[in-house]
Amino acid sequence: MEISYWIFVFSIPLFFLVSGSSSIDNFHQPFPIVEPDPGHTKLRLSREGLEAISRITTPISAVAVIGPYRSGKSFLLNQLLSLSCDEGFGVGHMRDTKTKGIWVWGTPLEVDIDGVRTSVFYLDTEGFESVGKSNVYDDRIFALATVMSSVLIYNLPETIREADISRLSFAVELAEEFYGRVKGQDIAFEPAKLLWLIQRDFLQGKSVKEMVDEALRHVPNSDGDKNIDQVNQIRDSLAVMGDNSTAFSLPQPHLMRTKLCDLKDDDLDPMYVKKRGQLKELVASIIRPKIVQGKYLNGKEFVSFLEQILDALNKGEIPSTGSLVEVFNKGILERCLKLYSERMGKLRLPMPEQSLQDAHERSREEAMKAFEEQHFGRHHAKKSADQLDEEMKEVFKNVIMTNEYQSTRLCEALYTKCEDRMDQLQVLRLPTMAKFDAGLQQCNQSFEQECVGPSKANYEQRIMKMLGKSRSLFIKEYNQRLFNWLVAFSLVMVVVGRFIIKFILVEMAAWILFIFLETYTRMFWSAESLYYNPVWHFIVSAWETIVYSPILDLDRWAIPIACMAALGILYCRCYGRRKHGSQWLLPLYNHQKGGSNRPRSD
Question: Which first-to-last residue range defines the signal peptide (predicted)?
Answer without folding.
Answer: 1-23
